[in-house]
Amino acid sequence: MGIYPPKEFIQQANVRDPAIYSRASENWVEFWEDFARELEWFEPWEKFLDDSKAPYFRFFVGGKINACYNCVDRHADMRNKAALIWEGENGETRTLTYFQLYREVNAFSAALRELGVEKGSRVAIYMPNIPEAVVAMLACARIGATHVFIFEGFSARSAGFRLKDSRSEFLITADGYYRRGEVTNLKEKADQAIEQYGGIKSVVVVRRAGIDVEMVDGRDHWYHEITKKGYTEPEILDSNHPLFIMYTSGSTAEPKGVVHSTGGYLVHVYATSKLVLDLKPNDIIWTTASLGWITGHSYGVYGPLSVGATVLMYEGAPDYPDKCRTFEIIEKYGVSVFYTVPTLARMILTCKTDSYDLSTIRLIGTVGEPIEPETWTWLYREVGRERAPVVNTWWQTETGGHVISQLPALTPMKPASVGKALPGFEVAILDDGGKPVKPFEIGNLVIKRPFPGLMLEISGDPKSYVKFYWSKYGKRVYFTGDSAYMDEEGHIWIVGRVDDVLNISGHRVSLIEIEQVAMGVKEVREVSAIGIPDRVKGSVIALFVVSEEASEEVGRKITEKIERDIGKIAKPGLIVFVPELPKSSGKVVKRAIYDAVVGKKKPAFLSNPEVAEMLMKIKPSER
Ligand code: ATP
Ligand code: MG
């Protein structure tokens, strides 16, 4: 069952032989080592895996490598090839060839060293999607500094939390950035964040928006003034040297500072870029995620550049000034691999795709949240025109790269399923006692064997590392926190977070399923379902709905559809129409809604302050 990958695609795919699965399961070490050997190492590893200190797993032990060297130097003689094509929201464009990127990274690495950045320093990057942000990441990687990227849309308070939690000593930022036609003063937010924390020694500011900003004498430096010419020797780093810290989205709890390695991480994203995204050197990949999200790191920078492909990068809102700008960009640059999130797809679903030449697209990928069959089918039919397979990739900040997905030339696609565990991975769905569940039974998704992209640790918080991931099933089985089921053919379907499965009068009700059904009502543009405490029933389902037509009539339609498609048990106790949902890295932050409604705490992640007021006024138990 399922939709078979298009023939033209199969013929040119990186992976066409189904034996890859059995080969990888017979010899998983060789499977990973073969990919590792395609990268350049200064010294080979002595041991593939050291698991003697489980749950701290170390890969490619003894190997010496540099991620920047593999992404940039290795390709620098391609002086006629774009590493990065950038478009600003205001229409500006820039291209950096591999050689120019090499030059720029070398020069900025030297500037950082002069400021006192050393191997092991932690450098925060609070920046919009502009080329210098990629240069900054790679320059840190070159000199062995650990970068900590902070999404530019975060408030000063959220940025301050991350600076402090990661104990960053340096900060790279920009004067401002464009979003929906307006310029935000980022430097001002950065200054407030620095003030909250107090541990930042030097600040580098990139001029992007050309606005007036205050520069603190002795502490702040303009990027263009300190970046001169020169070559900087890449540091020879241990495979398990921390490349970066990335905070989880914070959808369910406080964001966690996930620390990733250099060697294992790079091997993982390099391999999966080839296996899953089918990347080749002549591709232009557009990963629509911001750099401040793990997807931006793994498949917007390190994966594609290690393969030698071209990265397309866009600064602003993908639906501004024209709702269909996404398609203008794909057409203009001939994007061949389009990697995006369901939220964006839903935003542009009404665009007339036949007004654009989208014939260059040969693969579509989605990530980050469940995708409903309607949106999946639209991507497959209207965007990819049934020529491009759609891969639905499941992974997490903590896993560094893809874990579960279709292999685009091999796995029949079932709309909304995430396919199977990738070769080299062992995934299972267990009940609370640790036994595998039967097909179609919902259970906890686990990964039974470590893999190279697995995080090294949670920054400064060994207790959480063990508690969240390695307590439920012991020190060798990674607990993902997601629930899922498998169909009779072994395809996996993500049901949501373990917490998204509510127990209502003994029935398991999935909040994601409710959301997907509600999305089937024509007037519903976005919806988030959460369980909130109720004086009478213990817990009720509350729906927060974005709709152009906020009316009782629409509310009734939603309730009726849920009762019809799932059952009376899933009937929402509360439907609230809101102009906007709180989001981080494109996905809804349910914790923020919960905190506003139940805890009366003002949510971050909202661009519209009225929504915060509205959410805080809701009195869940007095309906
Ligand atoms: P936090 O861990 O702080 O609560 P988060 O889990 O949202 O935040 P991420 O690491 O960005 O942070 O997201 C990983 C999660 O996203 C997964 O655990 C899963 O719930 C969801 N997810 C990722 N890819 C998919 C997918 N293809 N289908 C369904 N859900 C997905
Ligand atoms: Mg998570």
TrEMBL record:
Query: Example GO biological process term?
Result: acetyl-CoA biosynthetic process
> So what EC number does this one have?
6.2.1.1
> Which residue numbers delimit the AMP-dependent synthetase/ligase domain?
78-450
Any idea where the AMP-binding enzyme C-terminal domain is?
Answer: 513-584
Q: Which GO terms describe its molecular function?
A: 3-hydroxypropionyl-CoA synthetase activity; acetate-CoA ligase activity; ATP binding
Q: Is ATP-binding tagged as a keyword?
A: yes
Q: What class of enzyme is it?
A: ligase
Q: Give the superkingdom in one word.
A: Archaea
List UniProt keywords, sorted A-Z.
ATP-binding, Ligase, Nucleotide-binding
Alphabetical list of InterPro entries matching this protein: ACAS_N, AMP-bd_C, AMP-bd_C_sf, AMP-dep_synth/lig_dom, ANL_N_sf
Annotated Acetyl-coenzyme A synthetase N-terminal domain residues: 19-71
Q: Which family does it belong to?
A: Belongs to the ATP-dependent AMP-binding enzyme family.
> What is the protein name stated in its UniProt record?
acetate--CoA ligase
